[in-house]
């Protein structure tokens, strides 16, 4: 009896999606690997049908069954739904890690040709600002919550090291903005520094994200694997794709506990959609990553090698530098198929081992503190008063309260007590209250009473408790 074929969910996507996905399917089929494709809908057409997530139920069920997806780019048309269908997919299936490798490719001329670049961005994929928790705090001030968890940091750091080990890589950099965002970005840095000694064969180093971007432009060959937070990784990986030939060459894998989604880094490129011009390499190489993920290492190597041989032979799509007579998407695809079974002269197959994923942590993951203390409370209010006048009013409202006004900030800058700094003000203030008796204790009743007093005169948007965990201040100080 012939063994059952492994089923893969296919989302062709929008714009150039169907063209590049069809190219990848044709090449994968031509390897003779035992897979079967189940085409499902997602993205623009689903939004147009009124499916607010852009992901129909049938598609979700197919992914749940098959657990492996090859997808084209999805658009989120303006005016339909609130969320990106991509973000919904990543969140729904908790694909927490996004692996984005780039390398110098033969025949692809760039400013860095000859420097043997081979860099992988491992990007956290579901937390951070991309959780999309946003509020208009006043009609003129917007807020986005950047939520980073210890659990999310552990998973992405472990994935980065597991990936580095599987590919025999030598170094992992952790890139964050922890000098400014000490608690959120700092959590990834601290988690990385805590876990890195568990991987003694790999050199580990923290680097600030802005310096990382600079170093990538100046001396990119120093990087091997870079692990970073969601938004930093999104930006940095477009940058690294630019170093090696552009978005048309950058594949990616979204890795979760149960589901993995393989797609190009690029979007739907509507300007070239339907013109048979798109470079399918990124999606084809994403297909190779998918084959490796399902244990079809030989087919994965065959696809990669056929792409390399095709590029070496001078067949190029129009997005590549110095191309006179560009190949169409279909011409390029046919050339790759014809080159299956050949080995690149310049980039022979690499050795890959299975990526040993960190075990899934089920249930609610808790980081506990032995000791907790409340130091005060920040109340965010809307007011068109100048800081001095606002402070006088707040002090009047709280004379009989156990809390005293400690400071007021406007967009992060201290404006009360008096600061030399000149800031242009907006009608959005953070007002920090602390206990008059610093050794005292308080709880929710006292906070609610304070909120009642302040709220009687001012419109408030939210409050934050100033907490201390095991003696450590768990809130940020003001910048100035
Ligand atoms: P984009 O689609 O990646 O395209 C930017 C430009 O890159 C294109 O105009 C084209 O440049 C070039 N390009 C990208 N892929 C190419 C390929 N395979 N072959 C040749 N050239 C390629 O970025 P965007 O214009 O910012 O985004 C368009 C839409 O895609 C948006 O709706 C966005 O939300 C969505 N998007 C989806 C995903 C995803 O599904 N994962 C990711 C990113 C963006 P030229 O002008 O030189 O032709």
Descriptive notes:
It is a single chain. This protein has 480 residues and is of the alpha/beta class. It contains 13 helices and 18 strands. The strands form 3 sheets. Strands 2-1-3-12-11-4-5-10-8-9 form a 10-stranded mixed sheet, with helices on both faces. The protein has a 6-stranded antiparallel sheet with strand order 15-14-16-13-17-18, covered by helices on one side.
Instruction: Provide the residue-averaged pLDDT.
Output: 93
Helix content range: 25-40%
- Straight-line distance between termini: 73 Å
By helix and strand content, what is the structural category? alpha/beta
Strand content: 15-25%
Sum up the overall morphology in one term: elongated
Present as ligands are: NADP nicotinamide-adenine-dinucleotide phosphate
Q: What topology, given as strand order, has the largest sheet? A: 2-1-3-12-11-4-5-10-8-9
From the alpha carbons, calculate the radius of gyration and give it in angstroms: 26 Å
What is the number of helical segments per DSSP (H or I, 4+ residues)? Answer: 13
- How many beta strands in the DSSP annotation? 18
Most strands sheet: 10 strands, mixed
